[in-house]
Amino acid sequence: MTDVSPLASSTPAPALGWDWKRLAIPLVLFAGLAVMPLIFPGDRYTLSLITRAMIFGIAALSLDLILGYGALISFGHAAFMGLGGYAAAILMFHGTGEALVAFPVAIATGALFALVTGAISLKTRGVYFIMITLAFAQMAFFTATSLSAYGGDDGLRMAQRNVVAGARLLQNDTNFYFVVLGLLIACYLLLRTIVGSRFGRILKGAKENERRMRALGFDPFRYRLTAYVIAGGICALSGALFANLGLFVAPAYMTWPRSGELIAMVVLGGTGTLHGAIIGAIGIIIVEEWLAEITQHWKAIFGPLVVLVAIFARGGIIRLIDRGTGR
């Protein structure tokens, strides 16, 4: 009998996996990021700005996994980022500044929170999923504000950046930049492999036709929950890196506007592309910083810009590039 399943090994899935024609964009992107310290030698401000953009790129990547491939619009994704930051900062507060401990703990914290909240949230769909993820994020926010031992509303400062195997590798801004870049590339490759696998095809199939996937014998809930846990862990890693960048973490990192900002990064970059999420994050962070230098009312300019991009670049910046190159 001929296998008509969309998961058959002979079925091409260029949009989900290793589409070699599209590799040019991420290669140029990562190569450009790699040479930035050479273009701006000794410019700590620019280096810090791009480092922050890459950290948000990791967070946006994680969101793109569930939003672009699972159609899960989460308004609580920033909670994972905040939890990762607090995990690293609290460990530092108690004398554990080793990155090889702090980063895995941050990932595990985000993944565990995603497992517990996702098991409940994923029982719902649509606007109900949006509201329940927002509710869980608010719970995390108010929990953080109540932790008076760790700064409460004022947040928690870190004495220094995490050490790596006892070495103060991350104290140097350039070293930290390349560590963040390396983790960004590693997360991209991991997620690219995941979405190109059988798991990714099932996740995408459930997004397009959940009833058909159930008829084929697959339980979409299990795959969505797994993707949600992976996304939570990766986003928590970005939070630990963000805490190291500014040597500070606060409950404000978990608010719904931050989650909305992550959604904007993914949508403007191009949902379901992964590298589009990175481009969207870098673009938004840089444009925000540029506009803030021009006027204190920069949000009044930034808002219409987002609307214009959404209208004239449907599918995001990546789709716009594809149309421009005839692909």
From TrEMBL:
GO function terms (MF aspect): branched-chain amino acid transmembrane transporter activity
UniProt key word Coiled coil: no
Membrane-topology descriptor: Multi-pass membrane protein
InterPro entries: ABC_transp_permease, LivM-like
Keywords: Cell membrane, Membrane, Transmembrane, Transmembrane helix
Signal sequence range: none
Chain ranges passing through the membrane: 20-40, 49-69, 100-122, 128-151, 176-195, 225-250, 262-286, 298-321
Subcellular location(s) per record: Cell membrane
Domain of life according to the entry: Bacteria
GO CC, any one term: plasma membrane
PANTHER family: ABC TRANSPORTER ATP-BINDING PROTEIN (PTHR30482:SF17), HIGH-AFFINITY BRANCHED-CHAIN AMINO ACID TRANSPORT SYSTEM PERMEASE (PTHR30482)
Name of the protein in question: Branched-chain amino acid ABC transporter permease
Source species taxonomy: Bacteria, Pseudomonadati, Pseudomonadota, Alphaproteobacteria, Hyphomicrobiales
